[in-house]
Amino acid sequence: MQVDEIAVLDLASSELEFFRSLRELILQSVDYIKSENMEELVPVLQEKQAMISRYDVILEEWNKIGLCFNIKNGRNNPDFWNLLFQALSAGSSLNGVFSVKIKSLIEQIKTLAEELLKTEDDAQEDLNEYVKRLRARISQVSKGRNACKGYASAGGSYLPGRPIN
User: Which of 34, 112, 120, 165 could form a disulfide with 157 if both were Cys (CB 3.0 to 4.6 A apart)?
Assistant: First the structure.
């Protein structure tokens, strides 16, 4: 398979656009987590999951390009971008404009992906804290209910809905 420079640029542009769109969903989810709006969070997470599922198409295309340059493990290779750029640079058809464009796109993709991973990790921590607080509140309600039942069964005179003696 011959690798076309335009196809590489288009694929890199598609991946960058994917990450930009994903960033919008991640930032929305962060806002909903911080405001503890779980009703609005669920559809955003579902949309994000669907988007991530579609990312497989982009990865498959990169894997095909990686095969052309004998890059083992394709896009899963941690050195994929460096190896791809080296392979493209070694090709006689690599011109200066293409080199600058692809290098710029690769850097933007790497930077944005790292930023999103950090933001996603922070959002996960915030969500875990929310769940911890929610569990504590549920536990308090449960203890209060049990205390109320215990008080009533011990002959207490007050239960909600009953007059105080």
Answer: 165
- Number of structural domains the chain divides into: 1
pTM for this prediction: 0.76
* Token pair in block for residue 138: 């549920």
Considering just the CA atoms, what is the radius of gyration of the chain in Å?
A: 27
pLDDT in tens, 115-145: 999 999 999 999 999 999 888 888 888 888 8
Match 């105080």 to its residue by tokens: 164
